[in-house]
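Translate structure to sequence.
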């Protein structure tokens, strides 16, 4: 007959794999820096794309739509990149 072990297995919690919220937070943290970097520089570069469209004039509906889409993209990039390198 063998004696029971002085350390029971019940006192050691089983090692559990990483939970889903922890994994999600880790992924978000790893993406946040590069996304802010890219958004910051896109927000700086997009106004230079607006200039030729404004110089051409917004009479053509296609040019007006393109200008509007770029303006919305610029606002989004400003919002997403506002915390970069602060």
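Result:
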């Amino acid at each position: 007959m063998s004696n029971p072990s002085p350390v029971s297995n019940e006192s050691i919690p089983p090692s559990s794999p990483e939970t889903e919220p922890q994994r999600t937070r880790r992924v978000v943290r790893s993406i946040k820096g590069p996304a802010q970097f890219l958004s910051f520089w896109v927000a700086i570069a997009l106004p230079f794309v607006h200039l030729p469209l404004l110089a051409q004039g917004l009479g053509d509906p296609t040019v007006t739509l393109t200008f509007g889409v770029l303006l919305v993209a610029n606002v989004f990039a400003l919002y997403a990149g506002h915390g970069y390198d602060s």
